[in-house]
Design brief:
Two copies of one chain form a homodimer.
Chain A lengths: L10 E7 L5 H11 L6 E7 L5 H13 L8 E4 L4 H8 L4 E4 L2 H11 L16 H16 L14 E6 L4 H12 L3 E6 L1 H6 L13 E5 L2 H11 L8 H17 L4 E3 L5 H11 L7
Parallel strand pairs in A: 1-2, 1-3, 3-4, 5-6, 5-7, 7-8
Helix pairs in contact in A: 2-3, 5-6, 6-10, 8-9
């Protein structure tokens, strides 16, 4: 095999290293890598690097990936000074997501950082954590209209025809933001009355509607029940039209899920419904 | 009210600003703030800041929060140069999570960043996104032994007595890493035979066990069924002991969920089971 010499055929190793789960390093690192769509990356994560010994091992892996032609990237969210100092000696490009920012924050606050302490994604504040776990439980129990009890204790009720993204969005809002999200599936009978479906009557202030495009909805439904009326363009188009009319009639805010990710939907819904959740 | 002059009684406003959902800014920002446990912060997020006009509005909010005694913190993951230039003019402390790192990466890769492009938490790569959505669906269908069909197509099967954290951990692994996770609840009958429960026989290579402490398990169960045998210390202690013996007998790796968050469990499980998931 000859080396074609084109950067695009080369794969650049990327390492994420952290004292905790590595979620921060991964998230922000990926955000940066996305700015280089022409480059192929091979990612590997090293979570829970909390000792200098472990840092030395990990640095060995980093350095072994360095070649004359390729400099791997290391994204680090390690906060411990000694561990960081060890990692920084790598021959890879070291992107310290933590380092200098902390100095700035220390100056602004006139308070010293603890340089360690509880990891963000540890249990931390147990009450806050329990709230998230309870929210997941609530979302599971109230998925797809499974239970219509205690809907009034929901922070948010997602309303939509089947397969418009209610479930993943509910789970995301519960897991990430500790919001108690119920969801209510609109079915044909709901469209006949013209009014709001009984279970969500009186709760319209916390309802949020999801829509999709007929093509996308038909595709998603077709994967579940190929060739069915349920998945037909005609049926999908009808349900979406009626759902949209219902949202409009009752001033339920809505978004089209066809071109949005759950993360985007969650951010838009929270902004629009003035829900702060757990930040 | 007199100002006591103690920094700890003052609340420092913190703003997260992003061109996308703001998850990266929030995650890494909070990781840094956690280094200052004595300081009270008041957080606010501004997602989807993609135009200079919007940036100007948002900067107005930042600056309005500046006082003689308090300098708010702004964590920015904005990648667009013009938007960033507008935001940087704030009188708050501006923590640019993106800025200089991108220059370094550009030098290392000898490739220019696009300085914009698809947001990380947009739909992006649809195939990758669909895989995550399918994983959530799979996790929902296979929660708590609800369906024992297609267990062989699971990437991972979480095994544990009731209320040890199977459900949130499954959801997290599906949502965040696109892993197809089933979970299997161990009940008393499972302990009687000594062998592996029938549905997971032959699948032991992808099983992972969760444990808890009797006290924590009893507390969590007590919230659901106060005063029940199910929630009693004796019952919890018994089930945990038997579960642990079962894991040991069948060489199923396990962790204790009592002192770990779902994020930590997910990271440990993936590391231990050699699952890379979607990074």
């Amino acid at each position: 095999m000859t080396n074609e010499g084109a950067t695009s055929t080369r794969t650049t190793p990327v390492f994420f290293v952290a004292g905790g789960t590595g979620i921060s390093a991964e998230t922000l690192g990926n955000l940066m890598l996305q700015q280089f769509p022409s480059v192929a990356f091979e990612r590997r994560k090293f979570p829970f690097v909390t000792t200098v010994e472990r840092a030395r091992e990990v640095r060995g892996v980093f350095d072994a990936a360095c070649t004359d032609s390729v400099t791997p990237l290391v994204f680090s969210s390690v906060s411990d000074d000694e561990v960081r100092q060890e990692l920084q000696q790598t021959r890879c490009a070291f992107i310290d997501l933590f380092g200098s920012h902390l100095d700035l924050i220390e100056r602004v606050l006139s308070v010293n950082a603890t340089h360690g302490g509880a990891p963000l994604h540890g249990l931390g504040d147990t009450r806050r954590y329990d709230a998230r776990m309870k929210a997941i439980e609530y979302a599971m129990e109230h998925d797809d209209g499974a239970s219509l009890r205690h809907l009034e204790s929901a922070d948010l009720i997602l309303v939509a025809p089947s397969r418009c993204g209610k479930t993943p969005t509910s789970m995301y809002l519960a897991l990430q933001h500790g919001l108690k999200v119920a969801n209510y599936p609109l079915v044909e009978e709901d469209f006949d009355t013209g009014g709001l479906p009984r279970p969500i009557r009186g709760l319209v202030d916390r309802c949020f509607g999801l829509l999709s495009t007929p093509a996308r909805l038909s595709q998603v439904r077709g994967e579940r029940r190929p060739g069915s009326k349920y998945a037909s363009m005609g049926q999908c188009s009808y349900e979406l039209r009626r759902a949209e009319a219902l949202y409009r009639a009752h001033r339920i805010p809505s978004i089209n899920s066809a071109s949005m990710s759950v993360e985007e939907m969650a951010a838009v819904i929270m902004q629009s419904s003035n829900l702060s959740g757990l930040l």
